[in-house]
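Worked Example 4.2. Consider the chain below.
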Amino acid sequence: PDPEKAVLEMSCRWESIDRVHRLIREYGGTPLDSDYASDPNGAVLRAELLASDTDAFISRFTDVTNGKDTVKKL
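Applying the procedure from the previous section yields the following C-alpha cells:
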C-alpha cells in the first residue's frame, strides 16, 4: 500500500457488517476483500484508508460495533 495509506482488518459479527461498510465509506476507505466463509458468526473485512484517519476510524469502529468486533492494522 501507499505509505500514506493503512490496511485494516476487521472481524465483524453479521449484525454489524452493514454499519462497518458504511463507516468505511464515511472515511473514504477502499474495501479490499471480504471473507464470509471462515467465521460462522460473521466476516473478516479488509479495507485501505488514509493512515492519518486510522485512529479516528478505530475509535468509531469500536462505537458502531459496541466494542464487540475487532479491528487491527496490518
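The mean pLDDT is 95. Strands lie at 5-13, 30-35, 42-50, 70-73. Compare this with Example 4.1 before moving on.
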